[in-house]
Amino acid sequence: MQRPQPSYEHCLITGASSGIGAAFARALAPRAGVLTLVARREERLNSLARLLESKSQVRCEVIALDLVKESGVSDLLVEMQKRSLPSVHLLVNNAGYGRVGRFGDFPFNDYREMFELNMRVAAELLYRLLDDLQEGPGRGVINVASAAGFQPIPYFAPYAATKAFLRSLSAGVAEELRSSGTRSLSFCPGPVETEFAKVASLESGFAKPGARAEEVVQIALGAYEKGRLEVVPGLINRLLAWSTRFAPLSLVLKVSAFVLKREIGGPSGTGPAIH
Ligand SMILES: NC(=O)c1ccc[n+]([C@@H]2O[C@H](COP(=O)([O-])OP(=O)(O)OC[C@H]3O[C@@H](n4cnc5c(N)ncnc54)[C@H](OP(=O)(O)O)[C@@H]3O)[C@@H](O)[C@H]2O)c1
User: Fold this and answer.
1) 95 lines ligand 1 (CB under 6 A)
2) Residue 150 lies inside a defined structural domain of this protein
3) What pTM did the predictor assign?
């Protein structure tokens, strides 16, 4: 079946206040009718919305809330309904974060919130928007997973596990949606220089030099338009992701541990937060 051209009439982007989410907003603004921008930092979202509206015909809706809250997704959908927004054509499931360190270095509540945001919120949004996404031709979801989702990563283990979950969910659902023409792309970047990384003063080499958010977002949108299931920007990242299929797990773990261990500083062995 020939897949219909993607439609961007109403794009909903989570985590749009910085980094990759903001880059999606900038890239989609010239193509979209309405952009709904979601994150906690309202002022950031408002300035982005003002900028985009001044540069293109797009209408931006800012909804500032904490998606991790149990009612976060419901509150978002109710607010969208209150504002009589059109049904969603593209969902960009982007909000997420990780923690570098030994499993156990952080209070469990930190991990719980990460699991909530990276997995439950992404899955719940997709679930609750399934009808919207199948309502018309050319609709779909971009799930922002990570190259970290291709293998278990010591010292980054809970984060890598959340991204493996999202990759798997995205691809499984893609096949279920195929007959309706709805796209589901798992987007798996390696290190990207985001605003958060700068604010968090990540000094060590792991995330630097990272790719630019604009570049990887262009790659994601290109893959989405082609109806691909998954995309890993960058040859090295693709080779690393591919190699984990064939290398013995013990070797994969040793190499990842070697790279990540450098991120763990301080007497407690606790590293910085990293997205
Ligand atoms: N940067 C990388 O190297 C990299 C690589 C692979 C994958 N990724 C993935 O890319 C996605 C975007 O990350 P990024 O690199 O662009 O980092 P970022 O600049 O820190 O962006 C994270 C976004 O998530 C939002 N967010 C965090 N907690 C939230 C909450 N409780 N409720 C609502 N929004 C929340 C943040 O907004 P507020 O703080 O305003 O709420 C922010 O807009 C994440 O899923 C990350 O795992 C990043």
Assistant:
1) yes
2) yes
3) 0.94
